Hints:
Layout: E1 4-5, H1 8-13, H2 17-31, E2 40-44, E3 52-53, E4 59-60, H3 62-74, E5 78-82, H4 85-94, E6 99-100, H5 107-110, E7 114-115
Parallel strand pairs: 2-5, 2-6
Antiparallel strand pairs: 1-7, 3-4
Amino acid sequence: MLLYMKNKTTALRFLSVGAFIITLLIASKTSGETLFKAPIKIGIHERFVYREKQLDGSWKGLDVDLMSSISKKAGFIFQLIEFPWKRTLKMVETGDVDIALSAAVTPEREKYALFSRSIYCVGHNVMFIKIADKHRFNDITTLANLEGSQ
Length: 150
């Protein structure tokens, strides 16, 4: 996951998620306060697996779970604000939101945003077969079934 924002003060706290978590944990444990007086504003939109809006209006997914876990351990709160992706990017650029989740680094975005390191990588493994050969794969239900196949 890549986090990015325009606000340099906030961005410096997010340059590395490890440093971010450690800084917040130390600050919240030693002073009794967190570094953030207001919720961190996160622009969000639906993206299968990463961020999915539930029927009750709540959000689930890898990005949301990760931010929830970090915020609980570090003692800060965040606010998810739903926008289309292009608007979220523009709002990061103008400073109207602090973070956009799972964003790719591009030269254009580097002009206005700072990026964290990649937190995780989700791969997609897909197998394609010819329709005419479909019958050959009827008994394959797991990867173990492929062992020894040619």
